[in-house]
Amino acid sequence: MSAAATAPETPIHEYPAVIVGAGGAGLRAAIRTVQPSAASTSAQARPMPFEPPVTSARLPLRFRSISRQSSNMPQITTDDGVKLHYEEAGSGTPVVFVHEFAGDLRSWDPQLSHFSRRYRCIAYNARGYPPSDVPESFERYSQDRARDDVLAVMPTMYDDLWTAGKGMYKSEPVVADDGEVIIYAPHVTEVSRTHGRMIEEVGYHCRDYFLAQWDRFKKYPGGILAHSTHVKGNGTYDAATDVETPRVQVTLATGISKERSALVNLGYKDPKTVDRRDYEGDPKTLVIPRAGEMLYRVKST
Q1: From 1.10.760.10, 3.10.20.30, 3.40.50.1820, 3.40.50.150, which CATH number describes the 61-141 domain?
Q2: Residue 294 needs a FRET pair 20 to 30 A away by CA distance; which of 5, 29, 137, 189 works?
């Protein structure tokens, strides 16, 4: 039976694997499929790194109290290990402000002051602009790489696996049996900032695992168990042999360590080894931008 996901217009068939990514503009999934899909390419340019002059900026009143010292600025780490410093203000739909050559995040202070009344505004110093890192190799500068840096800032709206996990359960319905979902989010370093301790005690398991051992797990809040089963997905559990068989494998390519991934019963992949462009150019892969925001289902055609 052929199938198609109802969310996008692009025809989708059953997928042996899914890669859910958030090195980019929100959470993103690349779905490995047995059907060909168009490869995407992008031209590269290589701007020279530039250190902006350290001068005082005419800041709007509400931003004059913000320290520009590196130690006081939040930072994220891109998938190739570059630390980017950023500032944000407001709440709601995120808007990222990207400065031009010879500028820095201070260039956008008037805009942040205005638009943060309605939006979550994020401005950052690009690579090569202190206090962000200044890589020595020219190979680490390009228009394509600059785009990836923008995408790496956006997912601060998914700041732990508790929220980023939706990339799995909203994509899983179109994954074939024995497939794999790789949650790609290099910036995510926590399982859950609120419920991390309990999730580490419980782990990620399919529903049958909990039902077969209900006396052991009934003390935990239902929301914790529901989150666990959503991220792990469907599967079976044989109490006699203590063997759990998930329908698909879930692998973390995040800032969560290999040891912690194993502790919560999920696979691990070094995010530095994942290049989204490889999947975009793979004819057996379909990339879903901002995975986790849209539910995918399979329907007969």
Answers
A1: 3.40.50.1820
A2: 189
Task: For residues 37-54, give the mean pLDDT.
Answer: 36
Domain boundaries, the chain: 3-42+159-300, 61-141
The residue with greater pLDDT, 219 or 137, is 219
What global pTM score does this model have? Answer: 0.55
Laid out side by side, the sheet with 94-98 consists of: 75-77, 83-89, 120-124, 94-98
Instruction: Give pLDDT tens digits for 235-285.
Output: 999 999 999 999 988 989 889 999 999 999 999 999 888 887 777 777 666
Level-2 CATH architecture, domain 3-42+159-300: Alpha-Beta Complex (3.90)
Bond into 173 cis (ω within 30): no
d(CA 29, CA 22): 8
**Residue 74 CB partners (closer than 8 Å, separation 6+):** 85, 86, 87, 88
**Tokens, residue 91:** 């709440």
Among candidate residues 188, 253, 200, 204, the one with its CA nearest the CA of residue 18:
253
Helix ranges (DSSP H) in the chain: 109-115, 143-153, 161-164, 166-169, 196-202, 207-211, 214-217, 222-232, 258-263, 276-280
